[in-house]
User: Which sequence fits this backbone?
């Protein structure tokens, strides 16, 4: 957890009448996709602008960038429009929460200090209108993926991060970008379709979690790059936000209901 992390006072959220809560993830800005990264940035900025009139809160569930590493006095070049729009929304009083993913796990305190956006490194429970949500990026959860889980522990080790910081930014950021795009243990390999809920690790994680805490109403994760809505039982549902590389999907909470939506007019 970065030094200077403010106390989070809003894990219990009461949504005013006429307002909504939005969930989005896996934009991977900096990586080519169905359309260019710059075009996706423009779409995301427009989407943020469009929802600003009714958004009470926005949860960004990781991998907004295809790579991110914060030096003490430097951050990756680019993403000016996105960062500026996020700052504009928080200045308007819209609360934004950021969960780091496997591509931006090297965050420290830039978002906290410059954008007033709290960041989370692990799944967290939020209570929204008296309903419990478990939220996170989703990497390293559930059974399997043991090699990545070991790498994640290494990359999140404070000594490893401190040592990496001694590389000049021109070298360090270039290496980070290469690993982000070329090393499949870090970048992940994503299916074009679900192989069934019994092979969906985040679904299995949610099923197991419910054994300990059966009052979770909604599990919402990213990472999977597939828009998913899978009932867990009569009271709980697992959602995945999809991505902004191919699907352009997001999730909306309004009046006690959660809905998976797709960006229109692409």
Assistant:
């Amino acid at each position: 957890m970065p030094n200077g992390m403010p106390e989070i006072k809003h894990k219990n959220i009461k949504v005013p009448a006429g307002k909504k809560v939005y969930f989005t993830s896996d934009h991977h800005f900096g990586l080519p996709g169905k359309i260019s990264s710059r075009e996706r940035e423009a779409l995301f900025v427009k989407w943020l602008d469009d929802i600003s009139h009714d958004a009470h809160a926005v949860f960004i569930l990781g991998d907004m960038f295809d790579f991110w590493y914060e030096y003490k006095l430097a951050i990756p070049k680019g993403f000016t429009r996105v960062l500026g729009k996020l700052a504009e929304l928080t200045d308007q009083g819209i609360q934004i929460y950021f969960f780091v993913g496997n591509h931006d796990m090297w965050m420290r305190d830039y978002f906290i200090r410059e954008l007033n956006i709290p960041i989370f490194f692990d799944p967290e429970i939020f209570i929204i209108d008296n309903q419990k949500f478990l939220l996170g990026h989703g990497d390293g959860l559930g059974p399997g993926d043991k090699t990545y889980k070991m790498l994640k522990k290494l990359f999140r080790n404070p000594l490893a991060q401190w040592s990496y910081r001694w590389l000049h930014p021109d070298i360090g950021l270039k290496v980070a970008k290469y690993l982000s795009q070329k090393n499949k243990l870090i970048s992940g390999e994503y299916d074009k379709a679900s192989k069934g809920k019994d092979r969906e690790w985040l679904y299995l994680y949610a099923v197991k979690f419910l054994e300990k805490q059966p009052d979770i109403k909604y599990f919402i994760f990213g990472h999977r790059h597939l828009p998913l809505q899978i009932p867990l039982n009569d009271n709980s549902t697992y959602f995945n936000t999809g991505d902004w590389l191919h699907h352009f999907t997001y999730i909306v909470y309004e009046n006690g209901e959660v809905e998976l939506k797709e960006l229109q007019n692409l």
